[in-house]
User: Fold this.
Amino acid sequence: MKKTIIVLAALALVGCAKEATRVETVEAPALPTSRVVTITAGFETTKTAYDEEGKFSWEAGDQIGVLVSNGEDIKQVAFVADEAGPVSTFTGIVEEGYELSGNASYPFTGVNDGYGRNDLAWDAEKGGWRIWGSIKPSLENPLASTPLWGTLIEGTQSFTFTTACAIVKFTVKNVPMEAAYAYLQVPEESDANLNGWFNMTDGVIRMDDAVEPWQDRYNWNVPTELNSTMEYYYFLPVGTLPEGTKFELCDSNWSPIHTATFAKDVEIVRNAVTNFAAIELEPTPTYTLEDILGTYDMEVTEGWASTNHETGLLVIEESDDAEKGNIMITMFAGVPGKQYGNFDGVNKLVFSSEQLFGANPYASAADHPYVALDFYTDTVVDPEFLVLDQGKIKGLADIMGFRACTEDEWFNEEEPHGGAWPWELCYGSLIATWHVEPVDPGSSGEDLNDPVEVDPWN
Assistant:
C-alpha cells in the first residue's frame, strides 16, 4: 500500500534572508513491512533551484535518499520525483522489515559524471555522511546540487529539508578553453577539511566534524565558449577557509593555468553563498587562417624514439579537399607529403592520426614504404599544434616525428599505429615560426671610377 509524506523546503540563499520551512502533513495509516512509499514536494518552478528570493524547488526526476532501519542496519533508499510543480510525488520502495529512521538527504543520484559526483550520501561502513572530492554542478542551474538535510517531524509522516553546508562561488573571467577543472585546496597544516566523510550535527556538515577528511575539492565544469565568464561553485563543510587557501584553474595535464591564493582567513557560513571577488585573466587571442598558413622554420629538441632530429621546412596550406579538413600539412621536416586537418578558428590545429603522410624518403623504404606523422603522449594521438602568435605554432605531444611503416602496420585494427623501430625522426619539442627569406644585405661599398688626371701646374 502507499503512504504519502509531504516534503516542502524553503531555504534562504543570502545572509539577510530569513529561512522559512513550510511543512504539510497528511493522515497516514500504519506502515506495512513491505510497501511503496510516496514522498511529495515541490514549488512552481520546473527545476531544482533557488530562485531570486532564495526559495527551493524540485524538478521531475530529482532523487532524495531516505534512511531506513530494521533496528540493526541502516540503509539509504532513493525516492524519485514523479513530476514538477507546487506538489510533486517522490516514490521509493522500502525493503521488508525496514522503517523510516528519521532523516534524508539530497542530492542522492548514485551517478558519477566523469570524476564528479554531487551526492550527499550515508556510508554505513565509514559511519558518516559522504561529500565527494569532485563535483560537476549544472552550468545552467548550479545551486541544484546544494546538499540538503531532511528531518522527519516527530509524530508525523513529514520531512523538513534545510541546507546542510556552506556555498562558495569563484567567478573567473576570460576562462581559456583548455581549462579542464577548477581546484580548491587548503594548506596541509590547517585544520580545514573540504571533502570526505563527516558526522552530521543539527543537520549541518562542519569541518570540525570530519570522520575521514581530505583537504581539496575539484569542480569539473568546463567553458563552452572562448573567453567566457565561469562561476565555479563548491558546497563545503561550514568553517573557515584559512589564509593560504589556493584556487587554481588547471588543464587536462593536471598543470595550473592560473593560481590565486587567499591572503586572509574567510569564514564560510551555512545557507548562504559566499561570493569571492572575481578573477580576471588575460583574454585568449583569436587567429584566422591568414595567421597560420605559410612556410615555417622548425626549432626542436631531440626525442627519445630516434637519434635523428634533423629539421627542415614545415608547410601549412589551405586544404584542397574540404571534406577532409580546412587545412593540410604538405611538408614536414623538409619531407613532402600530405596530412589533412582542421583549424578551429581560434588557436588550435588538429590533424587526424588516421592518415599516412607520404612516401618514405629514408633508408628503410624497401620494407616500410610510408612514413606516418606520429605524435605520441602515452599512446599515439592526433597531431595538434597550438597557435602562440601570428606565424608561430607549438606541437602538442611528448614526442613527435616520422615513423616508417606499411599500410597494414599503421591501420591494423587490433594493434594500430605500428611501424619500424626506432623512428626515422623524433622531436621532444617543436616550435615553428614563419620562414623569412634572407634579405640581400646590399653593397659592402662602391668601386671607384677611373682616376681623373689633372695637371694644375701648366
